[in-house]
Specification:
Length: 150
């Protein structure tokens, strides 16, 4: 695996293999081996999961945030995903959902999360909505507690 470098600003947090890290100053992290991580700016709060695509994003996010609860998140995914395939008629969304299913099946939750994130604007357009909250958040701990089942 090639070295992965991530730059963080002072006070920024990152979720790495189930741990929350906060840096006190601008820093760069180098990951020298395989790692599961989620940047704070990509964490969605439960109350932001107001549409089917955002709900699916939240479920996949749980897979990354709490490696010990992947089984429960996979069960939620197995229930939500087929329902979404039946709900949407847009070919781009259906193709994207099939791709997400394949990625999750191969254990590539991070890539699945990125793919879901790319479909949120399309869902917003289809639903005729402009989201009142961004897909990213500034508070990290509530989402972590929610994902951990607390």
């Amino acid at each position: 695996m090639a070295t992965l470098r991530i730059s963080l600003r002072a006070g920024e947090r990152i979720f790495v293999n189930g741990a929350v890290l906060k840096v006190d100053r601008k820093t760069t992290l180098e990951f020298l081996n395989d790692v599961t991580f989620l940047l704070e700016s990509h964490v969605m709060q439960a109350e932001q999961a107001k549409t089917p695509m955002r709900q699916l994003y939240f479920v996949v996010q749980m897979m990354l945030m709490d490696p010990n609860s992947v089984g429960a998140a996979m069960e939620l995914f197995a229930k939500a995903h087929p329902a979404m395939l039946k709900t949407y008629s847009n070919r781009d969304i259906i193709d994207g959902l099939l791709e997400v299913e394949e990625l999750i099946g191969r254990g590539r939750a991070f890539d699945g999360l990125k793919r879901i994130r790319s479909m949120i604007p399309l869902e917003d357009h289809i639903l005729g909505e402009t989201p009142d909250a961004p897909t990213t958040v500034t508070k990290f701990e509530p989402a972590l507690r929610m994902a951990a089942g607390a």
